[in-house]
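Help needed: design a sequence for this.
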């Protein structure tokens, strides 16, 4: 056997690991999906008052004397403009809401979910119930009375009904 010397260095085979990009794409997709879901939950409508409504509607006077309580309750209800009411959540929001045109009739909502609900009249949302006589009232043409202590609203077909309701709830 003849030995041959070589001046070449030992050529080691290098293994290059190519990472699978599908796994990385999958992880990024899951993260994006989670963020979108979280955003939708945080931005969607809820039956709760918004911070603006809470700050506007909270009474600033707190007393326990009966004379002062009668004054406070008399001021607890007031007629409010329709454009400042979310007609889906039935809440006074304190600021102008999104006008939603439904066949020439204008309703108001606080978000994109409200737009869809009012346009499709999901759960008969375009109508409220007069608390004095339980009659159905179109929210777009209603006289709206706000309960300042909770921010909730009541719908009336006439100004007379609204004032009657306020008078009955003064004491």
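Sure. Designed sequence:
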């Amino acid at each position: 056997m003849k030995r041959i010397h070589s001046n070449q260095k030992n050529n080691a085979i290098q293994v290059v690991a190519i990472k699978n990009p599908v796994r990385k794409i999958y992880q990024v997709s899951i993260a994006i999906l989670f963020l979108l879901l979280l955003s939708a939950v945080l931005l969607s409508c809820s039956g709760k008052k918004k911070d603006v409504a809470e700050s506007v509607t909270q009474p600033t006077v707190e007393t326990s004397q009966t004379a002062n309580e009668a004054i406070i309750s008399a001021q607890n209800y007031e007629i409010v403009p329709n454009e400042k009411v979310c007609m889906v959540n039935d809440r006074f929001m304190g600021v102008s809401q999104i006008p939603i045109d439904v066949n020439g009739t204008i309703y108001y909502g606080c978000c994109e979910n409200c737009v869809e609900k009012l346009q499709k009249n999901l759960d008969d949302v375009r109508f409220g119930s007069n608390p004095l006589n339980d009659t159905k009232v179109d929210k777009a043409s209603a006289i709206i009375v706000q309960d300042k202590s909770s921010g909730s609203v009541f719908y009336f077909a006439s100004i007379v009904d609204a004032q009657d309701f306020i008078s009955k709830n003064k004491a």
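The beta strands are 77-80, 85-86, 91-92, 98-102, 105-109, 127-129, 136-138, 143-147, 153-156.
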